[in-house]
């Protein structure tokens, strides 16, 4: 038994595939979805999105959006998404270093929240790039 996974951004369709399991970052932590899941709507966070499908997993770096499970189909409307194959460890590490330096300089609460978001996303990017795309 499989479920359908559609991943879209406001400008493109990224993936439309059958899947046996999907794991993604919700705003309040990781969420896993298997066939037969009940309907839901959730705000997305930042981190690794893994779609288990025939032929191996599809991996992405996700940054915000919404996910909706309805009628055997999980639709992910991503604010920003990058295929793991497009990530390099050196670029990801540079981004993390820049995000850490920025976090040390911010003063206001709004600036701090933005800097911390950038740090979380950069850390996820490094983790995914270093993991060998597992």
For the structure shown, list the relevant keywords.
about 130 residues; alpha+beta; 7-stranded mixed beta sheet; 7 strands
Description:
The chain has 134 residues and is an alpha+beta fold. The protein has two helices and seven strands; from the N terminus they run βββββββαα. The protein has a seven-stranded mixed β-sheet with strand order 2-1-7-6-5-3-4, with helices on one face. The radius of gyration is 16 Å and the shape is globular. The model has no long low-confidence stretch (mean pLDDT 90).
Quick summary:
Helices cover 29% and strands 48% of the residues. It has two helices and seven strands. A seven-stranded mixed beta sheet has the order 2-1-7-6-5-3-4, covered by helices on one side.
Count of separate DSSP helical elements: 2
Could you tell me the number of beta strands?
Answer: 7
Write down the CATH topology of the largest domain. Answer: ATP Synthase, domain 1
End-to-end separation: 23 Å
- Sheet-strand content, in percent, reads over 45%
Output the radius of gyration.
16 Å
- Spell out the helices and strands N to C: EEEEEEEHH
Number of domains: 2
How would the blueprint of this fold be written?
Layout: E1 3-8, E2 13-19, E3 21-26, E4 29-33, E5 40-53, E6 56-70, E7 73-83, H1 89-105, H2 109-130
Helix pairs in contact: 1-2
